[in-house]
Batch of 3 targets.
Target 1
Amino acid sequence: MTCADEIEGPEQDGADSAAEATDCLCGRGCPPYAPGPEAVESRASHGPVMAGDVLRGERVVGFAYTQPPHGRLPEARDDRLLTEADHQPDAPPQRPVPTVRPPGPGDERLPHDRLSARAVVPAARRSRCLPAAVDGLLADGSAPWARVLGPIARTVREAGHELWLSGGAPRELLAGNGREAVRDLDLTGTAPAGRFAELARRTLEEDGETYELRAKVSPDTLVCTVHRDDRPTPLIEYRGLGVGGFRFPATGTDLVADSLQRDFTVNSVLYDFERHLVLDPSERGLPHLSVPGRALVPVSPSGDPLVQAALAVRAVKFLARWQADGKVDTRELRAWTDEFPEDLADHVRERGDQAWDQLLALHHECLGGVPAQRQTAVASMLGAGVERLLRTLLGSPE
């Protein structure tokens, strides 16, 4: 585990129109949104494999990863190609990922071009100051990612992969908050875990100023981090687009499939910082960021106690953070959490010590700096089951 109301068309269009008419508020002299000629892009014939390609008669759906032998750094040869036939096995196949896409059937469109028109919004149309805000965030020389993001992004894109901002950066900037609200930098994209780590390491080794940094992959989550050995906090974190249905960690290249793996709708919004596009594959994230105080809505309400407990902890984290900015709409969230059993913690413990330890680790990651009284007060807003869960977690040794 790691701690990342429908609004119909006319209302959303109205919100966009209002954003276009608003004067520049950041002092950078941002120009108003002006649609340019539509750029026609397509995948390169020698580019990487993506979901939907057909290899030896089987449709590609994603990628897995096998940990390299002790002492060897992660590479592209550790990635595994997944097809529809791989949903049942307990472990990834030994099928390597081809260096370039195979000849034959496949979707020539780039991932964002496979979305509906509603799901792709030019950033300047959303807010004329948004592109400058993102550029300023990424170029902030005081930020931990300042030295590495640009070179790594260029290398990844030159290899034919797409890369987007995910998590807190697009969520906070789209909500109108400033640079100070962005606590870390999360990325997602189409590169499999081993391939991203290999490309990042190549970039770091070629740059004389970043040779001391390291790129590693967590085999349990497929999260790739760029970090310094002497510091616990990563400079950047990357995980390929999410894909479900496998009994082992997997990533893909489909934006809609990724949105279904997110915890809350507001966290399914991505930002293309090369083209300055806001991507909302679920078509719910932007409306939920637009309501006063934001709406915290689970993507896929689950009946699994472990999933319920994990999302409850994340929900308390966001509510504790956002309530200072105003009331948060929790109606859909509360309708779901009201169904939680009061002994939710006991149901998680029945899964074994490993499941409980994972939940404790998530709780510490998400809420370690929040006073216990504040945690329980926020949790009580989500019903007796969530409040009792938080009290149990607070009373359990880390």
Target 2
Amino acid sequence: MTVFSTTLGDLVTLAGRRSIRGALLPSFVFCALSAMILVVAPGGGNRSLRSWQVAPWEYKVLVVAGFVLVVLCVAAALNSAQTALIRLAEGYWGAAANRTLGRLGRSHHQQLVRRSDDAYTHDRYPPISRPHELMPTRLGNILKAAELYPRLRYGIDTVLVWPRLHPLLPEAFLQTLGAARTDLTGFLGSALLAAVLTLGGAGYLWVFNGPTPLFLMCLWGGGLVAWLCYRGALLKAMTYGQHLRVAFDLYRGHLLEALGHPVADSEEERAHWERLCLFWHRGIPLQPITMPDRPASPPAAPAVPDPPFGLAPSLSQLTVALLTIMGIAGALVGTG
């Protein structure tokens, strides 16, 4: 899925309405709430207000300019980290995390797929014949399903073909695709900032013995906002994935025509895409190779064994439990 993110990253800049909605506005809210917590935590809210009222105008200008600079820096960092943010939300966490949290998340989604019908899993999960493709997060499975679609339908290796197809897409479709990705990254960025504010703000209030209601509001309220933003990202990911499917359905023939190899028969097209992918990936010439007969649909992957544990909670459920325990413990022992 990174191939989609990397190529489309050029469509989104820090200026314009998309960036304001996707990076600048969440960054402003994050910085404003962080500033409020920093002022309120030590119990110096009234003192800070009086100091602001009597401060010279030069000091006020410097404070406002510094706040604006921080907001722009956070927005720029959030905008430049879109690809990494999508990969993080998909579940590409490295070997150590994949063996622990990743295994737990995949076990949960394996059980969920087994209990669900095809109508529910169609756009949300890889095909049931490919359980080894399951990702540990819900968003990762949505995007993985979109990534596997061209391979299963047309024999297209998405990673190899997408960078070559992308320049041939019409401008109107590129704008629609870019807007869908901006909405997705905007919700993910908001969820990330809410999570940082939840942990960082609650930790700051706990260290400085801030008011208990404010501590719980920061911890639980911020966690709720992060979860709602992530749920919004799931809806936008489904829209984004659908646009990617449409791109291959409607415009893959444009790439074959641009290469000088138009085909009309569906079986011939599948074999030709496989030859092209072998040529781009391994340098195997197109003409001398003869592809063996293949079934109309890819063979089913070997079944993945059932999860070792009967109970496989989702990562969201574990997060809710952890935040609940942290809130209760912090309210009892740490805040005033």
Target 3
Amino acid sequence: MGFNGAFREMFAPQKRSATTDGSYFGNYGGFFSLGSGSAYPMKPKTALKLSAFYNGVDQISNDIAKIPFAIYQKDGTNRIAHPDHPANILISTTPNSLMTSFVFRKTMAISYLIRGNALAKISYNASGYPVSTDFINWDLVQDIRIRKGELLYDVRGFDKPLLASEVLHFKNFSHNGIVGVGVITYAAQQLGMALEVQQYSATNFENKGVRQGVIQTDKTIENGKDKIIAGWRKAMGEKSPDRIVVLDDGFKFQPINITPQEAQIIEQQKFNIEDIARWLNIALHKIKSLEQSTNNNIEQQSLDHNSDTIQPHITNFEQEYAKKLCTPTELRDGYFVRGNMDVLLRTDMKSRSEAYARAVLTGWRSRQEIRALEDLNEGPEILGEYLTPVNTFTESQIDKNLKENGK
């Protein structure tokens, strides 16, 4: 399957193979229909027409994409970076020949958030080292089944099933731990209602606020009703905002006034935004809804966003990366993948500076390490020493100082 083919099929309807023994699509098929069984059928391309939903997915996927990942090893109490590990370049800079790490992870995150699943094929060289991770459109996955204890992925365009060890499979919400469930599956009704409200507002705006109504007269009209209706429609169908209709011979236009229910539908738009934020587990201010935000609580909401919304996804990515890109021997030797969440503070100089100051003054980071985090060259050797607040000495430190001072 070429790149152009994958692009054309990005929003193609899903096609599933027949149910087979051990098929996870067969056993859980009702969970993967993207709300097609709902009164409001929903597809990814349709849902993204809602600005709040689009912006929420864009925000979360951007945060996942911009976090740098790297491979480390836990050696006793030390953490050793392994920039020369064959898989490190795949997760840090160049996952494949077509994408940067940001683009790859954003693409994966969008699929992961909307479809509940993101899949990539791992390619290996002759020595058995991973050399490429290529995005696979989830619509191309026809079945996921287990055979002889091995999980197999039937993917359109591949001659044989892919083994679980040959793919990166990021799963979001899941009922069985094998296949994820897209948020649209459960949010279809809410998103469908939001789209109807949006369409209602657009139609009302297009009609310049002129509503349906009736033309009244005290006279009895035997013939010509069709001409009157056609003339009214022609005049009101003009795009000009200066539309003028002349009614003579006692004719009057009586509009059908907006009902309280219809007025409430327009008011419903802001509640739809809140519901979309709940479905995506994202703070309202992140999708540009600031009615309930102040300068005092936005900072705390941003911290909550990092810990409650982004951190779980990063942990998910870290563990799948480590499981599939490190060998079993390396995992036993303490290798792991880490996404540096500190990057989310990069644009907030005040919060970043305060965090650095606390880290240095409490002694869990050196000034040399802070310089490295800011991509600065090493300073004098003394900056590598850890500071200890004088009012937080332990009892043994106090006893040592007393003895040294002869007391």
